[in-house]
Amino acid sequence: DARVTQTPRHKVTEMGQEVTMRCQPILGHNTVFWYRQTMMQGLELLAYFRNRAPLDDSGMPKDRFSAEMPDATLATLKIQPSEPRDSAVYFCASGTGQRNTGELFFGEGSRLTVL
Amino acid sequence: RKEVEQDPGPFNVPEGATVAFNCTYSNSASQSFFWYRQDCRKEPKLLMSVYSSGNEDGRFTAQLNRASQYISLLIRDSKLSDSATYLCVVADYQLIWGAGTKLIIKP
What we know:
The complex is a heterodimer of chains A (115) and B (107).
Chain A: E1 5-7, E2 10-13, E3 19-24, E4 31-38, E5 42-50, E6 53-56, E7 65-71, E8 74-79, E9 88-95, E10 105-106, E11 110-114
Parallel strand pairs in A: 2-11
Antiparallel strand pairs in A: 1-3, 3-8, 4-5, 4-9, 5-6, 7-8, 9-10, 9-11
Chain B: E1 4-6, E2 11-14, E3 19-25, E4 32-38, E5 44-50, E6 55-57, E7 60-65, E8 70-75, E9 84-91, E10 95-97, E11 101-106
Parallel strand pairs in B: 2-11
Antiparallel strand pairs in B: 1-3, 3-8, 4-5, 4-9, 6-7, 7-8, 9-10, 9-11
């Protein structure tokens, strides 16, 4: 079964540390999304890539977050320095169409706790 | 007003009952609509798309009301395994996610 793979599944770190999350989208998918989910905010879009090009990162705090796709099989989301308010589940999702095509395939998420 | 609004619930429903919940959206130009299901501590998964004419998939029926700007999800003969959070997604030039409606099916 083709699926989106995310690592790490869980991460506990201390405030100020760098955190890098990785995502392998489904082979052949040309859109990749990074979402953050908390109990209070629901799903928030952090970044969106199409054909590896970043098209929207307006939802991402630029001072500490960065997202890249070094190649078609890898997307990364980096937080430096991390803060307790960054604690959340970070989902990567990939899809085949335009950004308004609703069928996205999600990874299992990276659960981040910043102490 | 939020762009996409859902009643957070929880909806506590006995097994076998029918349950329905709505999702309202603010952008009348929205083009596509979807329902996702998210189990506790899991990732969201697409449940069904919502077409203008409505659509049905087994016990699940999705409807779109453009005039009143809402979509609905109806679950018939509910099962314990239907317990989850149901997220609606509205698309114009981007995907807008609702915060979800929590459904608990009780034996």
